[in-house]
Amino acid sequence: MTARGFLLYAGMALLIVLTGVFQGWNLALTILNMGLISAIMSLGVNLQWGFAGLFNVGVMGFVALGGLAAVLVAQPPVVEGWNAGGLRLLGALALGAAVLIAAVQVWKRKIGGQMRAMVMLALLIGGFFLFRAALDPAVNAIEAINPSLSGYLGGLGLPVIVAWPVGGLLAAGAAWIIGKAALGLRSDYLAIATLGIAEIVIAVLKNEDWLSRGVKNVVGLPRPVPYEVDLQRDAGFVEAAAGYGLDPVTASTLWVKILYSGLFAVVLIAILFLAQRALASPWGRMMRAIRDNEIAASAMGKNVTARHLQVFILGSAVCGIAGAMMTTLDGQLTPGSYQPLRFTFLVWVMVIVGGSGNNYGAVLGGFLIWWLWVMVEPLGLWAMELITSGMAADSWLRGHLTDSAAQMRLMTMGIILLAVLRFSPKGLMPER
Amino acid sequence: MAEPHLIGEAMTGGYGRGADILHGCTLSVDKGEIAVIVGPNGAGKSTAMKAVFGMLNLRSGSVRIGGEDITHLSPQDRVAKGMAFVPQTSNIFPSMTVEENLEMGAFLRRDDIRPTIEQVYDLFPILRDKRRQAAGELSGGQRQQVAVGRALMTQPSVLMLDEPTAGVSPIVMDELFDRIIEVARAGITILMVEQNARQALEIADTGYVLVQGANAYTGTGAELMADDEVRRTFLGG
Amino acid sequence: MTDFLNAIVALSNFVLIPGAAYGAQLALGALGVTLIYGILRFSNFAHGDTMAFGTMATILVTWGLQSIGISFGFLPTALIALPIGIAITGLLLLGTDRAIYRFYRKQKAAPVVLVIVSIGVMFVMNGLVRFIIGVGDVNFADGARFVINAREFKEMTGLDEGLALRSTTLITLVTAAIAVALLFWFLNKTRTGKSMRAFSDNEDLALLSGINPERVVAVTWLIVAALATTAGVLYGLDKSFKAFTYFQLLLPIFAAAIVGGLGNPLGAIAGGFVIAFSEVLITYAWKKVLVYLMPENLEPSGLVQLLSTDYKFAVSFAILIIVLLFKPTGLFKGQSV
Amino acid sequence: MITVENLHRHFGGFHAVDGASLRIETGSITGLIGPNGAGKTTLFNVIAGRLPPTSGRVTMDGEDITGLPPHELFHKGLLRTFQIAHEFSSMTVRENLMMVPEGQHGETLWNAWFGRGKIAAQERELAKKADEVLEFLTISHLADERAGNLSGGQKKLLELGRTMMVDAKIVFLDEVGAGVNRTLLNTIGDAIIRLNKERGYTFCVIEHDMDFIGRLCDPVIVMAEGKVLAEGSADNIMKNEAVIEAYLGTGLKNKTVGETA
Fold it and tell me: What residues form the membrane-spanning segments (chain C) (predicted)?
C-alpha cells in the first residue's frame, strides 16, 4: 500500500473513533461491523469489475442468497414440516431440475432445427405442469403447519458460521447459471440479466414460504457469539466489566459487537489476502491481460469466456458470503428489506469511490461509504434544522424539509458518485 | 496565371500525436478537372485526402480553396465552404431511404432542394427507382451512388472521393467513373484516391503518384500511364 | 354459446385490456430507453427515475390546478398538467446533460462509463423525488372512474361476466397511441427527426453532412422527457404513484427494449406488448375463463395460475434470456455495438 | 502445413474472401500480398479463429481446424499478430511476454493462493526467457516500460516477441511493417529470418513493403477480390502481368480514354 493509502486508512479509522467519542461506541461498533461486511461486498464487486470489467448489477440477489443460507444452515429443522411433505418437495425439485437438464440436453443434440425446438418446448411446458403438480401439494402441506410460527421446513440446525461458506456456494451456483447465459454478450446485457436475477431471487424469498417463511420473516437466528443476557448473568464478565468501569448492560452490548467485529475482520482479511495474492500471481496477470485486450489474450491462448465465468462466480460468491454474514449479524432474514439501491448500487458507489481495480481501495470505499450512509441522515437533519432555524415553528416548509432530511441519503450518494467519476475517475486509491 | 481552385500545398503531418505520414505533399486541382491520387498500399493516399479535408493535424503547409486559406477550419466548416467528402466505408445512412439520405446531404441548405435531388436522380437513374428503399438494402454499387449523391446535395465546388470503386464489380466501376466524369463536366472539381490506378488515370486530368507520403510522380493521366517507373512503383519502390 | 361469450368477456376484462394498457406503458418507457441507446449510445439506468420525476412534476402541477379550481371534467386533471410536467422534466434532463453527460461525450468515454454515470444520476433523481414528494402512495386520478362498469355491462348484455373499462385504461391507450404516432411522424417526416435518425445510423457521416450533434442530443432529451413523463403519468393514473415503483419498472422496460432490438423504436413498442402480455398471461388465474369453456366435470379445482404475480419479474427475465440466447439483436434488428 | 480449401467469408452481400484456396508449407516464410480490400486480413481472421467462415475448410497438418476459437489454435501452435498492435497496455513489456506461455502453475487460482514456491521458480524462468526475447529483439531497455507507452514499431516488435515465448509451429504476421520505420523493419526482418532458421518457425506474412517481401518470402501468394490470383517466387510475382494488373486496376484494360468519356 502507498503512503497515501495508509493516510486514507488512518483517516477512516479516525472517523470511526470520532464517531465513538462523540456519538457513542455502540454506534461506532455498529458502523464498523456493517463496514466490514460492506467492504467484503465491495471486494466481491471489485473482483468482477476491477479485475475483469464485468458489469454486475445483481449484487442484491447474491447477498440475499447468502441470507437464505443462514436460515437453511442454522435454523433447527421443522420436523412436522418435513413429515408433512418434505420428501415430496425434494422430489418435486429434483423433477424440476431433471426437466431443465433434459431440455438443455435436447438443445445440445444436433437434430433438425424445428424438431429440436418443438421437443424442447414440449418438454419444458409438460415438465412445468408435472413439476407444479408435484410441488404444490407438498408446499401446501408444509405451509399449513403452524403458519404463524413456522410453516416452513427450517434448516439443518448447524452452527451459523457454516452458513457463510454455504452462502458463498449458493451465490456461486446462481452466478454460474447467469454467467453461462449472459457472459460473452455485450456488457449491457449482462447488466440487465443480473438486475433480473436479483429481483427473481428476492421474489422467491418473498413467496416461497416453505423455504424462507416469505414476508413473515425468519427471526431469532442462532448466533456465533454469546447473548447479552447470558453475559450479564456471568459473574466473571460482570466483574471484568466493572474493572473497566462499565455497567454490565453496556459492557455486554459492546462485547458482543466486538466479538462480531473480530469474526468479520478475520473473514475480510482472509478474502483480502486471497484477492491480493491472486492479483499478484500469474493468474492476476492473465486477468489483467484479458481486461486490457480480450482479442489479444484469446490469441495468446487464454480462454477468455472461461476466465470471465470463473471470476464472475468468484465475485458473486464473495457477495454471498457477505450476505450470510449480514443476516447472521441481524439475527433475522427479512426478504422485504432487500432494495437494489441499498444492496446493489450502493456497493457500486463503494467500489468506484474506493478505486476500482484496487482491493485496498474497494475495502476503504466499503467503510467510507457505509459510514457516510449512516451519518448522512443525522448530518442532513442537523443541516435542515440549521437551514430552517429562521422559519416559524409551524411553517409547512419547515416541517416538510425536516421530514425529508431522511431522504437525503440517496441524493448524497449520487452526488458523491458523480463527483468522483468526474474529478477522480480512478477513485481514492487508484489501481496503479 | 490564376491559382487552381483547390490546393493542398507542402502538407506535412500525421494522425494525432503520431509520426508524420505526409512529408511535404502537394496536390492541386483546377475547376471542373479530375485529379487522382494513386500509389502503392500504405503510401499515404487516403491520408493526403483527409489532410485536404481537415481530418488530421498539419504540422506545416496549407490548404486553400478558391484562393481562401482554410487550413485551420474543421471538416464541418469546410463543408460550408463548398467541400464534400465521400468516405471509403460507412458512407451512407443504412436504415434511411435513398431519398432521406439525399435530404440529409442537404441538411445545411435552407433553399428548395428538389431540383438538386432531381439532378442526382438524373445522374443516377437507378436511385430514382429505389428512392423509397432503405439504403442499407442496396447493392455495393448502388450504395456508392447514394454516397456520391449525398455528397452532391450540398452543391459543392469540390468533391472528394476516397476509393469510390472499392469492392464493386468492374461493370459498376465503369459506370461510376462515367458518372464522375459527368460531374466534373458540370464544373465541379474532383479529387479522388483510387486503387484501380490504370482506370482512374485514364479519366484523370492530373495524376499524383505518392510514395511514402511524398509526391513521387505528377503528370497527366496519359503521361503517367506510359511511364515504366510508375508501373514499377505499384509493386513497391 | 353464452358460456363462450362469457369466457371472451372474462378474458378481455382480466387479460386483454389490462395487458394492452400495461403494454402501452412499457412501450412508451422502452421507446425512451431505445432512443437514448440509439443516439447517445448507452443504457440509461436513470430512466425509471426520470419517469418518476416526470410523474411527480405532473402531480404537483395537477395539485396546483386543482387548488385553483381547474379540472378537466370527466378526464383526469393530470392530462392538462402533463405538458407542463413534460416541460419541467425536459429542463431537468437538459440540465443533467449539460452538467454531467456532455463532459463524457466530449471525452468520447466508453459506453459503460456512461452507464455508471447514469447510475449516479439515478441516485440523485430518486433522492430528489423522495425529497420533494415523499415515499407515500399518491393517488392523483380524478374524473370519471369508469367508461363502462361491470354492472352496467351485465345489465346491457345479460351476461354473467361483467366487462369494466376503466377510464384510465382508455386514456392510457389513446394517449399512448397519440404519443407513438407523434413520435413516428416526427422521426420520419420532420427535418430534425430525420437528422436524429441519421445521427443514430452513422454519427461521422452526420457530422460531414453538417448535422449539429449537440442539437440532436438536446432534442433527444426533450423527446425522452416527453415519453418518460407520459409513460410515468399513465402508469401512475392506472395504478398509483409511489417513488420507488418506477425504479422497478426498469427491468421490464429494458427487457422490452432488448427483446425488440435496442435502438429500434418499432421494436421497443413490440417488445413492450410482448413483455406485458406474457406477464399478464402467465400470472393470470385462468380458472375464471376456464369454468366457462370446460365441461362441468373437468372444471379445474385450483386457480390455474401458472406463476404467482410476484414472479412477474421472472417473466421479463425469462423472455430476455431466451432472446439473448437465440436472437441477440432482438426480434427487430437492433444496433449492435 | 496449413491448407485452406475454397474458403468464403461474406459480410452481408460483401464477399471479403471469395473462394480462396492456398497452402502454407512447413518451414516456409510465405508472403501474402494484394491491394487493399483483397481480403488478406479477413483470411487471417478466419484461419486464426476470430471469424467463422461462411463456408470452406482450414486444416493444419491434416487436422480440421475450421472455426476453432483462437485460444485452442494457440495450443496447437498457431499464433498470430495484429495489423494494429494489440498490446496489453497497462502491463509492462516483460509482463506482456511472461503472460504468454500456457499451463503456468500460477494460472490456476489454487496454486496462485497456496503454491507460491512453485510459482516463484517458474516465474524466474519466465522472466529469464522474456529477457532473452527482449535481447533478441534489441529492446531490453524497455523491459519495465508500460506497453501502452511504446511506439507503434516497438509494439509490433513486442507482438513478435510474444510469439517467441512458446514453441510456435506457425505464426501469422499481419502487416508487421505498418507504422514501422525502415531500421526497425530491418530488425524485424532479421528476427523473422532467424526464428525461421534457428527455431524452425513457419511464417505467413501480410506486408505491403515489396523490399521486405522480396528479402524474406518464398513463396509469395497474391490475393485480389477475395481470391488467390497468383503464387510464386517474389521475382516472378513482380514480373507477372496479372499481378501488375491487379495492382493497377482491372476492367478498362481494352478500352481507350476516348471510349470512357
Answer: 20-40, 52-74, 80-100, 112-133, 163-187, 216-237, 306-326
- Cross-strand bridge partners of residue D206: D32, D174
A172: Cβ–Cβ under 8 A, 6 or more apart, which residues? A313, A314, A316, A317, A320
Q: Give how far Cα C200 sits from Cα of A187, B109, C216, D78, Å.
A: 20, 21, 10, 40
- Report the residue of chain B nearest D235, measured CA to CA: B235
Q: Write out chain B residues lying below 8 Å of C202, CB-based.
A: 90, 92-94
Other CB atoms within a 10 A radius of the CB of residue A262 amount to 11
C-alpha cell at D112: 496462485
pTM for the predicted model, two decimal places: 0.90
Asked whether the predicted pLDDT for residue D256 surpasses 50, the reply is no
The CATH number of whichever domain residue C25 belongs to comes to: 1.10.3470
DSSP C269-299: HHHHHHHHHHHHHHHSBTHHHHHHHS-GGG-
Domain containing residue C269: 2-326
A-C CB pairs within 8 A amount to 134
Between C154 and A375, name the one with better pLDDT.
Answer: A375
Angle at A341 between CA A339 and CA A343, to 5 degrees: 65
Domain boundaries in chain A? 3-77+154-423, 78-153
Is residue C161 within a helix (H) or strand (E), and if so which, with residue range? Answer: none
- Compute, in degrees rounded to 10, the torsion defined by CA atoms C238, C239, C240, C241: -90
In a domain, C129, yes or no: yes
Map grid coordinates 415503483 to a residue: C245
| SS3 category, D180 | coil
Burial group, residue B102, by CB count within 10 angstroms (0-12, 13-18, 19+)? buried
Three cell numbers at C127?
433522492
Taking each helix axis as running N to C, give the angle between helix A187-207 and helix C250-260, from 0 to 180 degrees, rounded to the nearest 10.
140
In whole angstroms, what is the distance from residue A294 CA to residue A303 CA?
Answer: 9
Residue contacts between B and C (CB atoms, under 8 Å): 58
Total count of domains within chain C:
1
Task: Say if B140 is an interface residue toward chain D (CB within 8 Å).
Answer: yes
What's the average pLDDT block by block, 10 residues per block, for chain A (432 residues)? 91 96 94 98 96 93 97 94 90 94 83 76 90 90 86 92 97 93 80 89 92 91 93 92 90 95 98 94 94 93 94 97 97 94 94 94 97 89 82 77 80 95 94 78
pLDDT beyond 50 at D258: no
User: Is residue C331 a part of any domain in this protein?
Assistant: no
C181/A contact by beta carbon, under 8 A: no
Distance between CA C4 and CA C6 in Å, rounded?
5
- Which of D35, D211, D245 is nearest residue B41 as measured by Cβ atoms? D35
Mutate to test the interface with B, among D83, D225, D248, D255 (most CBs of B within 10 A): D248
CATH number of the A3-77+154-423 domain? 1.10.3470
C-alpha cell at C105: 461525450
pLDDT tens-digit map of C162-213: 888 888 899 999 999 999 999 999 999 999 999 999 999 999 999 988 899 9
pLDDT for the residue C334: 63
pLDDT tens-place string over residues A352-373: 999 999 999 999 999 999 999 9
B40 contact partners, CB below 8 Å, separation of at least 6: B211, B233, B234, B235, B236, B237, D208, D210, D247
CA distance C119 to C32: 16
CB contact under 8 A, C127 and A411: yes
Band of residue D260 on the pLDDT scale cut at 50, 70, 90: very low
Give the full edge-to-edge strand order of the sheet including B34-38: B83-86, B158-162, B189-193, B34-38, B206-211, B214-219
Residue C333 placed within a domain = no
Tell me which chains share at least 3 CB pairs under 8 Å with chain C.
A, B
Write down the ipTM of this complex. 0.88
Of B80, B91, B100, the CB nearest to C194: B100
